[in-house]
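Quick log. Single chain, no ligands specified.
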Amino acid sequence: PAIATLPSITEVSRASLLSGRLRQGSQATEKVDFPKHDGLLQHCQPSHPPVLFHKNELQSRDETSLSNEVIKAIESKRRIVGAVINAVDDFLLKGEQLDIRWSKDEIKVLPQLLYEAKSSGRLVVLLSDHGHILDRETKQVKSDGGERWRMGSNPTDGEIAIAGDRCVLPETHTLIVPWSEKIRYRIKKNGYHGGVTMQEMLAPMAVLSAGDN
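-> predicted structure:
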């Protein structure tokens, strides 16, 4: 497992993961920082730095196959090609009436990515920036902040105060997060992230090979 940042949200955890340093950022930030990631650049030729594709760049216009740009990048001499898939976040936002048994076939772009990687003899590093909890009779507590984090220094039942540089938000590097799965600070959804339960903080990571690489 990998460990998420605090709060365990996309604009912090994913931006930090793809940038190689603790920071807050958007897709635009990730797009700029990924090719400059010091750890990744050590394994690349200067003329072929890492490249990153986000959700809206992965599929062709008819959304039935990978875009030609992604396929060309995987087939190229570029050693590191990154792809961001948002399937789980989309499900948490609006999938309350769905019960999905997650597999590679449920995420329609993933089998195609794995196929192209296998055909090009590449290793695949499959990982997430953070985890989530599912809604199970959560209680809403209105507060400033995110779904599962808020500003302040006085925790109540089910919460804990956290401080330090790894707390990227807010600027004070001090925040309150729930350790209980029963608390949320925003509207009801299928699931939430931002807290410090093991489900939110421990993110899976696997290295996959189709042969003897």
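The two ends are 22 Å apart (CA to CA).
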